[in-house]
Amino acid sequence: MNVFTLRREHKIRLLFLTGITFLAYLFFSQIGFFRSFKLQKVFFISIFRKDVAHFDRQPLYEPENEFDLQEDVNIKELTKPVTPQGLVARKRSFYLNNQRMYIYSGALHYFRVVPEYWRDRLLKLKACGLNTVETYVPWNLHEETKGTFNFEGLLDLRMFIKMAQDVGLYVIFRPGPYICSEWDLGGLPSWLLHDPKMKLRSTYQPFLDAVDAYFRHLIPLVADLQYTKGGPIIAFQIENEYGSYGRDQKYMKAIKELLEQHGVVELMFTSDNDQGIDKGSMPGVLATANLKSMDWFIRMKAKLKSRQPDKPFMVMEFWTGWFDHWGEKHHTWNSTEYEKVLREIVASGGSVNLYMFHGGTNFGFMNGANYPYAPTVTSYDYDAILTESGGLTSKFQKTRDVLRKYAPKGQVPKNLPTPLDPPSTFAYGMLTVVAHLNLEAILSEAKVIKSYDVMAMELLNANEGSGQGYGFILYRNKINSGRKLRLAGKVTDRAQILIDGRQIATYDWTDKDRSIDLAGVKSSTNLDILVENLGRVNYGKALDFQRKGLTRDVYLDNNKLVNWEIYPLEFKSIFISSILSSKAWQSSLPLGNPPGFYKVLLQISGIPRDTFISMQILIFELHKPNVHVILQDKPVLG
């Protein structure tokens, strides 16, 4: 039997502590501090807790005579720091470190905000009373071409997550592989469609192999940022709204297993809307709701309570507004109605993620679309809690008020920090077009691909087998005399028809009659068909059919045209650099506004400030190659 005694220094410390405590007690008694036994108890517990915390940092006892190595090891193990307990959903509540918590989250997508503004947006999110930030992860940005991964700059995912932790926020991580989010092809890379047999979001083995390769890079990158490993990530989503697409449980199980295989150890969940919840949820996995209206809230709460009675109610997407398609008026949602639904969610004990807290911008060519085809605009303002430029809306204060009034006690700080002022903006006035680069000069910098037939951009032998992803594609042929030109298939998405550089017709996806009268056209004439990809559908069952360009043949007087020259025009940074350094720029502007590059002079004096560029006075053909590519290459200019 081992005999242990208190160490000498602990004996002295305890005697000293007892004396100090007694003197303090006499002093506070004289001034009337103790009015109840409860206060006396709290006083003594507080004093002794502080000293016991000191004892925990060193062995409390030392052995006398005998020494048992195994028992000593066990004692030391008890003094090790306790491993954090991850997020658990049980007893109709969330628990983190075995403490009940309510998740009040805001959606903020790092890839829609330049890194210079990440901290500003995160601080505003916390100042709103939220404790968590949610982000999707777009596969098609991180692996734009097959096998080449990018996690730098705008895509520095680790920096964003660590910044959220530094600000004091938890993170909900939604890696897909499909994310929807009004993002091109729902975040799936276009090179998947290079396989003509591809079946997206399925157990088609080449698709699962591609997901496996992606997760093999993505998940280890953030594995040490999980909560139980000392990071801020408390939960991972499996896929996204799968119930609106299919009901293959084998596929969902495969995605879950891949996440676990590559290092996910935190709570996993699914999210679906009212129509998809029954098909998209999984046995043993927390199901969460996506909704907007009060009716949806009532239905979804009842449905989830019936499905998982012992789990907490979580609205993974509470839509704070809505997105816009080209040609639509900007969507807004009355802040009073927004407040009513949010109040019901919070007051009923639910957790919530505000989608979006800050929408940001669909940089480059990355906007999505809906079916029947309707492309989404570049702005992702969403009528969210913050504007696209980071300013506060009326929903910001309403959100703070609801959380402070209706959240359970202790879940939201009483004194929230004052939100930062929005970045200053400035109107620089009218811009002047100073130079023009014609189409031939642009094509001279591009790689030409020769093909017997026309084909979609994704099927081209480009980008080391990845095909063309975005931008424009030009099909060129020589034609002899003929009377009628006919495009057999639907244009995806917008085509300009040029004869010897002169535009003679324009078609888009809505046109059913795609025949052109060529009376008077001479023989050996250059025919150019310039097609623009306006964004791939990101939601619904049409994902497998999102190949862009000309997907069917072109006929001249019922004779199929063959032997094409095809120019993929993606406007990547290297290509833009070669264009800008071209010696073919001309100061005189052409007549008729043909396709080309137009250089605009923006004069700035002093420190550059945020601004918006209005394209209303320019025709449609000009604004995409100018503004979108500038945003893609230098997003801060947008």
From TrEMBL:
EC annotation from Swiss-Prot or TrEMBL: 3.2.1.23
Entry's family note: Belongs to the glycosyl hydrolase 35 family.
Entries under PROSITE patterns matching the protein: GLYCOSYL_HYDROL_F35
Entry keywords, A to Z: Glycosidase, Hydrolase
Annotated TM spans: none
Keyword DNA-binding tagged: no
InterPro entries: B-gal_1-like (IPR026283), BetaGal1-like_ABD1 (IPR048912), GH (IPR017853), Gly_Hdrlase_35_cat (IPR031330), Glyco_hydro_35_CS (IPR019801), Glycoside_Hdrlase_35 (IPR001944)
Full protein name: Beta-galactosidase
GO annotation terms (biological process): carbohydrate metabolic process
Enzyme class: hydrolase
SUPFAM superfamilies: (Trans)glycosidases
GO molecular function term, any single one: beta-galactosidase activity
Catalytic reaction equation(s): Hydrolysis of terminal non-reducing beta-D-galactose residues in beta-D-galactosides
Organism: Owenia fusiformis (Polychaete worm)
